[in-house]
C-alpha cells in the first residue's frame, strides 16, 4: 500500500489503476468536504517528505472587495525561487468545482472552497509545484504560488447577494492576488507561467491574455490548462447537464462582464464560459493538458445520476474496465468532440497539446502523473517533459494519444 499526494484518501495501486473515493480537484457540483487531514494523503514513503508551504492572506484584498464567498480574506501559498529561477514565477490556480445556486453557494461558503476559515493553513507542494529537481526538473527553483479558490466561478465572478450574505468576487480575488505578488517581486519576472487544474484550468484559460498584459513584452509569458477543457457535450440522456449548470454559475455570480469580449460579441455568456469557444482566439501561448476521457466530465457532465436515473452507467463511471462496448462507443464520441475542438487551436505554432487516452483528471499536481518513473507518456515523452519542452521552446509538442484502450501507461482512476 502506498500514499501519493493529491488524493483525499489512501488508495491501492493495482497495475496503473488507482482506487480512490475522490481526487483533489475532482469534485462533484456539490460535494461533501472530506476531513482536512485526509485531503492529500501524505506519507514519507511516497516521495520523501514533501515541501509544506504556509498560507499567506492578501491583507489589502478587503479594501478592494476581493473576498471569499463568506467575506473572509483570500490567500495563497508562496515558495520563493532561487538561483536561475529567482526571477521566474509560476501561479497555479486551485480547482474545486463551482456553485450555481444560492443554496449550493451557501453550503460552499462553509468549506475550504468558500472561506479562509476552513482552508488548510499548510499544503504540500508536489508535481509542478515541487521544489525537487528530480520531481519537477524545469520549475523546481521558480517562485511557485498556489492561489486558493474560494469563489465558485473560476475566479471570474463579480457581484454580491446581501440577503444570502454571499460575495461572488472571483475576478477581484484574481486581480488582488496578482497585484500583491507584483509587489513581492513578480513585476521583475523574466518569465512567468499561469497554470491551473480543473476549475483552475478553466480559470487559466479565461485569464491567460489578461495575465500576459501584466508584464512587458520582453517577459516570456505562457499559460497551462490542466483538465480545464470542459466540453459543451450532450449527456447520456440527450440533455446538456453541464451547460445548464454553467448557465446558473454565469448568471448567479455575474461572470458575463469578465468573459472575453471577442467571444461575447457573437455568443451567449454561457457558451463563452466553455473553453471550446475561447481557446482558438487566445493570443498568449497556451498548453492544453487533458485526458480524452476526463473522469470528472464522465461522472458529472456525461453520465450524472440525473441523466442516468437507473444507474446503467454506474459501474463504467467507477471503473473504466466495466464499460460496455456501447458505452465506450459513446465515450469515443466525446473524445472526437474534444479533438475537433482543439483542431484550430493546434494549428497555431505557439500552442501545445497533450491529450492522453486515460480516465483521469488533473495530472500536473500529482507527482505520479507529472514526473515519476511510471508516469503516463505519449510516444516516449511524459507530461513534465512535454510541458517543459513547449515552455522553453526546446521542441514543439502537440501530442494526441491513440484511442482507448491502446495506452498502457495511464494512471486510470478507479472509484469505490
From TrEMBL:
Enzyme Commission number(s) of this protein: 3.1.1.-
Enzyme class, first EC level, given as a word: hydrolase
Keywords in alphabetical order: Cell wall, Cell wall biogenesis/degradation, Hydrolase, Secreted, Signal
Localization per record: Secreted, Cell wall
MF terms (GO), sorted A to Z: pectin acetylesterase activity
BP term (GO), one: cell wall organization
Main location: secreted
GO cellular component: plant-type cell wall
Record PANTHER family: NOTUM-RELATED, PECTIN ACETYLESTERASE 12
Function: Hydrolyzes acetyl esters in homogalacturonan regions of pectin. In type I primary cell wall, galacturonic acid residues of pectin can be acetylated at the O-2 and O-3 positions. Decreasing the degree of acetylation of pectin gels in vitro alters their physical properties.
Protein name, per record: Pectin acetylesterase
Source organism of the structure: Camellia sinensis (Tea plant)
Amino acid at each position: 500500500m502506498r500514499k501519493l499526494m493529491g488524493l483525499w484518501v489512501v488508495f491501492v495501486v493495482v497495475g496503473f489503476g488507482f482506487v480512490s473515493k475522490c481526487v483533489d480537484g475532482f469534485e462533484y457540483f456539490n460535494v461533501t468536504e472530506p476531513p482536512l487531514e485526509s485531503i492529500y494523503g501524505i506519507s514519507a514513503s511516497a516521495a520523501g517528505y514533501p515541501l509544506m508551504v504556509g498560507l499567506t492572506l492578501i491583507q489589502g484584498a478587503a479594501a478592494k472587495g476581493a473576498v471569499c464567498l463568506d467575506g473572509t480574506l483570500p490567500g495563497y501559498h508562496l515558495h520563493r525561487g532561487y538561483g536561475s529561477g529567482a526571477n521566474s514565477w509560476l501561479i497555479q490556480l486551485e480547482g474545486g468545482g463551482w456553485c450555481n445556486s444560492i443554496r449550493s453557494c451557501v453550503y460552499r461558503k462553509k468549506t475550504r472552497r468558500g472561506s479562509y476559515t476552513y482552508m488548510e493553513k499548510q499544503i504540500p507542494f508536489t508535481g509542478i509545484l515541487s521544489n525537487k529537481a528530480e520531481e519537477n526538473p524545469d520549475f523546481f527553483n521558480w517562485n511557485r504560488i498556489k492561489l486558493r479558490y474560494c469563489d465558485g466561478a473560476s475566479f471570474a465572478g463579480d457581484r454580491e447577494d446581501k440577503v444570502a450574505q454571499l460575495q461572488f468576487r472571483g475576478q477581484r480575488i484574481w486581480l488582488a492576488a496578482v497585484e500583491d505578488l507584483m509587489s513581492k517581486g513578480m513585476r521583475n519576472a523574466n518569465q512567468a507561467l499561469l497554470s491551473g487544474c480543473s476549475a483552475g484550468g478553466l480559470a487559466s484559460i479565461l485569464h491567460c491574455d489578461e495575465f500576459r498584459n501584466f508584464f512587458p513584452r520582453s517577459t516570456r509569458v505562457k499559460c497551462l490548462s490542466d483538465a480545464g477543457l470542459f466540453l459543451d457535450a450532450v449527456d447520456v440522456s440527450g440533455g446538456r447537464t453541464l451547460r445548464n449548470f454553467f448557465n446558473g454559475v454565469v448568471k448567479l455570480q455575474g461572470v458575463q462582464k469578465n468573459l472575453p469580449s471577442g467571444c461575447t460579441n457573437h455568443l451567449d455568456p454561457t457558451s463563452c464560459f466553455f473553453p471550446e469557444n475561447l481557446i482558438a482566439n487566445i493570443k498568449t501561448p497556451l498548453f492544453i493538458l487533458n485526458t480524452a476521457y476526463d473522469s470528472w466530465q464522465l461522472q458529472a457532465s456525461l453520465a450524472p445520476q440525473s441523466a442516468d436515473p437507473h444507474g446503467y452507467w454506474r459501474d463504467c463511471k467507477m471503473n473504466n474496465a466495466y464499460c460496455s462496448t456501447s458505452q465506450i462507443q459513446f465515450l469515443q464520441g466525446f473524445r472526437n468532440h474534444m479533438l475537433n475542438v482543439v483542431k484550430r487551436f493546434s494549428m497555431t505554432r505557439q500552442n501545445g497539446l497533450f491529450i492522453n487516452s486515460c480516465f483521469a483528471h488533473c495530472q500536473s499536481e500529482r507527482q505520479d502523473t507529472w514526473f515519476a518513473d511510471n508516469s503516463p507518456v505519449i510516444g516516449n515523452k511524459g507530461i513534465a517533459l512535454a510541458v517543459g519542452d513547449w515552455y522553453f521552446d526546446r521542441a514543439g509538442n502537440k501530442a494526441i494519444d491513440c484511442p482507448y484502450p491502446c495506452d498502457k501507461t495511464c494512471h486510470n482512476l478507479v472509484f469505490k
